Amino acid sequence: QSIANQAQAAVTAGGDISQTTSALSSQGADVVQNMLVDSTGIDEQAFGDATNTLMAFSMGEVEGKLTGLAKQVQGGNETKKELRLDMTELREELSDPNARWPQEFTWNEHSTDSEGNITSTEKSGSLTKAEAEALLEKLDGQLATIGEQSALWQFDLQSAMQKQSEIMNIMTAILKQMHDTMSATIRNVKA
Fold first, then answer.
1. Cα separation of 136 and 134, whole Å?
2. pTM of the predicted model, to two decimals?
3. Burial status of residue 107 (CB atoms within 10 A of its CB: 0-12, 13-18, 19 or more)
4. Which element (helix H / strand E) includes 106?
5. Residue 149: burial class (beta carbons within 10 Å; 0-12, 13-18, 19+)
6. Which of 41, 46, 56, 77 is 20 to 30 A distant from 156 in Cα terms?
7. How many CB atoms lie within 10 A of CB 10?
8. Band of residue 124 on the pLDDT scale cut at 50, 70, 90
9. d(Cα 107, Cα 139) in Å, to the nearest integer?
């Protein structure tokens, strides 16, 4: 049974795939070493440099995604904070029995595009009490939408962080196997 089939069976059964991952890492390290060191005659230093480059590329992609997702989550949290402040100001004025209407207000309206990017637009105007109540409901809807989007971003961020951890574990296992293989080869040559 191939390592890939073993991994699939372990995942399907909900079992531990650490042995399969270790075997896959070992096989991957052997393939890379055979291709780079044995087939091309590349020296160990160049082999180490190639390995480091591979790790940098693998981690760079994940790091870039993590950074982007973290910025989205942060932007969503800042937007929710702005919305809550605007809503609090409106609620305070609406609950004040001595407030005179219409009143001047400045607020931010927020929307998200199909890619989840938040767009903020500052608005101001003279509002009647009914218009202020309608605006409060509108901002409440925007807060709910941004909150849902933020929850999705947070889930995506957690998934990306988990993926980063998995990649680090796999890369560590591959590097360890490569080091062990090279050390054994050097010991055998010296013997």
1. 5
2. 0.61
3. buried
4. strand 103-112
5. buried
6. 56
7. 16
8. very high
9. 9
Tokens at residue 141, please?
Answer: 């809807």
Measure CA 116 to chain center.
Answer: 14
Length of the chain, in residues: 191
Three-class SS of 3-69: HHHHHHHHHHHCCCCHHHHHHHHHHHHHHHHHHHHHHCCCCHHHHHHHHHHHHHHHHHHHHHHHHHH
At position 112, the amino acid (one-letter code) is: T
C-alpha–C-alpha distance, residues 167 and 59, integer Å: 8
- Over residues 66-107, the pLDDT tens digits come to 788 888 888 899 999 999 999 999 999 999 999 999 999 999
How far is residue 15 CA from its own chain's centroid?
A: 26
The contacts of residue 34 (CB under 8 Å, 6+ apart) are: none
Chain segment 137-186, per-residue pLDDT in tens: 999 999 999 999 989 988 988 888 888 777 777 777 777 777 777 777 77
122 SS3 class: strand
